[in-house]
Amino acid sequence: MLEKTDEVIEKLTLLVELSVPPFDLKGLKLGPVEKRVLELCDLKHTRQEMASELKKSLNVIDQRLNKLKERGLIKSVKIGESIFYLRLRR
Predict the structure, then answer these.
(1) How far is CA 73 from CA 6, 8, 16, 17, 19, in A?
(2) pTM
(3) pLDDT digits over 37-53, tens only?
(4) Which residues pair with 76 in a beta bridge?
(5) Do the beta carbons of residue 50 and residue 33 sit within 8 Å?
(6) Is residue 21 part of a domain?
(7) Total domains in the fold of the chain
(8) Is the residue at 45 inside a domain?
(9) Residues 85 and 75 sit within 8 Å (Cβ to Cβ)
């Protein structure tokens, strides 16, 4: 029962985050790869798809995703068996 409650809370939190206006990327100090990774955090791309699209290794993508998570700019979301990334609206 608690697992279902946690799942519902997580989904509601995600809906709230999606309803807030997007933040301005111009003020962020990001490198070109970080910026592109952040743009691909749209709940449509897995890390493997990002690596393929950007022609970068999974290691490079993972480093950038971790850095963006640490800065509170993205969140990972598991949908089925896949993990997608969401750019947070701050």
Answers:
(1) 22, 22, 15, 11, 15
(2) 0.73
(3) 999 998 889 999 999 99
(4) 85
(5) no
(6) no
(7) 1
(8) yes
(9) yes
